[in-house]
Write a structure and sequence with these properties.
alpha/beta, 293 residues, seven-stranded parallel β-sheet, 11 helices
Amino acid sequence: MQAVDIKKLARNISLVENESAGYEQVLADLRPEKDTPIIGITGPPGAGKSTLINALITELTSRNKKIAIVAIDPTSPFNLGSLLGDRIRMAEHYTNPNVFIRSLATRGSLGGLSAKAIEVTEVLKGADFDYIIVETVGVGQSEVEIAGLADCTLVVFVPESGDEIQSMKSGIMEIGDVFVVNKFDRPGAKEFMGNLKKLIAERNIKVAGGEMPVVIGTVAMKGEGITELIDAIDDYLQHPHTAKRKSLLLADKVWQLLIAEKMKGIDKSKLAAQIEEQLDKGDFHLYQFMKGM
């Protein structure tokens, strides 16, 4: 198994993320040797996504697999800084040579993904990883963007999510390829799983191969159900996307990249300064301000 040049990889990601000199050439030179699957993990806050990823890393590395993690962290709207919480949550894996962990700030993106996540995952696909896992910030139904990035999307719930899933009429429920009920040792877990399966059937949600999504119960803190979850992911990945689905996924990637390109000239801090100036004058009008841009 070829060793990953971690320093070079980290440097290239920094170039791309910050759009430093030479980043466009880095992207243009990408020639992935294999189509590394991207596993998206999303779900409401408190579902235990990071703990689940820790358990997945432990099991996959025990099989001598190489894993890249992209953890999307929420950005402060005041200083645009990322909380970088995964530095604490996944600290036990930082010294593992088969694990690469990178945090990305959302930088104002509302869909649970960083605006640079697509490009960063493409850089990672140019390295020799077996899986790339992308964890979103956990903001609810607006996280549907992950479906345009991931080859397999995991939607994670806990048994207490009962009222929440009943109100989900679209969006996050429809993007799940594999559903996970984490903290399955809690009271009401089996009942919740039954209701989740019923909801999937009622909405006629289908995945690759025309089957209903698999629902897996896990206790990530104890490593329970993780083997079954990896088997479900691998089974799903064995069903290649149809040409139509693949074109839609690629179209979504291009769409996101085009938006990022068009927004390059917009500086949020400068906008805030201009708005503050007009507020001080007492003549700020939202739509007039937008027309003047």
